[in-house]
Amino acid sequence: MPKPRPSEVDSLSARADTPAPKKQAAPDVYSTAQVFADVHVTPEGTVVVLAGTPHPDSDHGYVAGDDLWDFDQDIKWNQPWNDVVWLGQIDVDVDVDELEANGLSYDVDFNRLLIHDGKTWTRRKLPKALPYGYVAPVLRDLGAPWGLSAFGVSALAFKGSGTSWKLKEVSGPGGLDLVDGVVHNGVLFGLCSENGLGRLVREGKGLRLELVGGEEQSGLRGLFVHEGTLFAFGNDGVWVLKDGALVRRHATRAPVRSLCAAPEHGVYLHTDEHAWYLPQKGKAQKLVLPKDGIHSLAFFKNRLFVSVGDQVLRMEKDRGVAPKLPFLSPGAARLVVAGDRLWTVFPHQLASSRDGKHFEPIAFR
Questions:
Q1: Residue 63 pLDDT
Q2: Cβ atoms within 10 A of the Cβ of 173, count?
Q3: What CA–CA distance (Å, rounded) separates 131 from 61?
Q4: Cα 325 vs. chain centroid, distance in angstroms?
């Protein structure tokens, strides 16, 4: 066999030493610099996402976006998330080195709606309600034709025709601080963090919170309506509205974070560490779930889904099965059932599933 010529040896050696070209990473079209809090899907299929502008920890904050803490003026909202980019926008007296040393932490003003009409995303500001306070991170269908509950300290914003908003300020007891709102039996109810549950009744051009339940109810943080029952939950349990008063249904040692629909007209509820099934009648039954911090629960396609740690699990008997998600997302997911789909609402990414097994990412670019 003839020996290769020197030039051929050099060529072979050069090819052997040349590293293989690196595979280019696919562009990130599924994450955004906005922070997501909740998802609402209209009967027409329009996806509405409540989003916020993150900023480094401070004791300043305003309800809507035309203030000095609105750092997204020069950053397109649909760019991939990068915490460093927000530090580049700071032109006030903030110790960046200290923030980086201690780990970045953000307050969020939920002051944007991202709306997808089936073709494209648009971003809209929410109206300025009051000169201080934060928008509660909850989307609710409140009529007229739909509303965002718990605006700042004492206002509700309703979506009118076109791009206009109808803002109704709420009067009521001292320390009024609305944190949630629901429609129950055709009546609009609001929850005040200081004074508890009340009906929102018309008063001139605004609304007034008319307390129900008799005595002061502090420590309540959320409302939920299921199968004709109004639930209130908070620091140490769950109550139901019965004969014009709140009646305790289940006591907990830790704050209840959320409720969701369950089989047989019951509900699921959870704290950070434990979860229960609460039947329509009778005592709550504790659930066996993976121990990694419960962030959210949802019942979809006859299965319980649980967000624990950075995973979403579908419960099969007492075993959690992790469906494959289309991306690796930082943070924990909030689970929302809307528009006949199960949504995973990560801080900066969204995905949905029609069967609870296969998830599709929602692109922003």
A1: 33
A2: 15
A3: 9
A4: 18
Sheet with 245-251: list strands edge to edge. 220-226, 229-234, 237-242, 245-251
In angstroms and rounded to an integer, the radius of gyration of the C-alpha atoms of the chain is 25
DSSP letter, residue 9: H
- Token readout for 34 is 């906005």
* Least confidently predicted of 124-128, 298-302, 315-319, 350-354: 124-128
CA dist 296 and 114 (Å) reads 22
CB hemisphere CA count around 60 (13 angstroms)? 10
User: Contacts for 234-240 with beta carbons within 8 Å, 24 or more apart?
Assistant: 238/269, 238/278
- Decide if pLDDT at 11 tops 50: yes
Beta-sheet pairing, 47-56 with 106-116? antiparallel
Comparing 340 with 66, the larger pLDDT belongs to: 340
User: Quick one: pLDDT at residue 80?
Assistant: 82
Q: What is the mean pLDDT of residues 70-96?
A: 52
Question: Hey, which of 32-36, 137-141, 241-245 has the most confident mean pLDDT?
Answer: 241-245
Spatial contact of 278 and 250, defined as CB atoms under 8 Å apart: yes
Q: Is the pTM of this model over 0.70?
A: yes
Name residue, tokens 């409540």.
50
Distances (CA, A) of 214 to 111, 168, 172, 209, 241: 34, 25, 15, 14, 12
Question: CA dist 289 to 313, 316, 334, Å?
Answer: 10, 11, 17
pLDDT at 131: 39
Helix (H, G, I), strand (E, B) or coil at 85: helix
Decide if 66 contacts 109 (C-beta within 8 A): no
Contacts of 263 (CB under 8 A, 6+ apart): 299, 302
Both tokens of 213, joined, read 């339940």
35 vs 51: CA distance, rounded Å = 5
Tokens linked to 290: 């993976």
Asked if residue 145 has a cis previous peptide bond (ω within 30° of 0), the answer is yes
